[in-house]
Design goal:
Elements: H1 2-5, H2 14-26, H3 28-40, E1 59-64, H4 72-81, E2 85-90, H5 97-100, H6 102-114
Parallel strand pairs: 1-2
Length: about 120
Amino acid sequence: MMNVFVYDASSLTDDLMQARLDNMLARRDHLENFVKSLAANPKQFTDYGARLGEITAPTLVIWGRDDRFVPIDVGLRLIAGIQNAQMHIFNRCGHWAQWEHADAFNRMVVDFLGN
């Protein structure tokens, strides 16, 4: 699964994968509840697209162009529906923009929150 989250899976270390697994298994009840909820309601993520226009706060959307987990068109729908939104798209980036482009991501978020 983690291979899907990143653009370049060669950057994933055994230590990182172990840490993610340890975090999941530390609260096995959360993992089991998530799996049960998916089985009970596979389409549990409600589409709030029609309500995006209600969001008036400045919004920063950051996406990886190569995200294979949540396609970029989802991000484009967000900025199309949120009236005061801006979007930054990282090239050579999957779902983990905050990890794959940590320095630029952090600068962008700090700047956005500070202004």
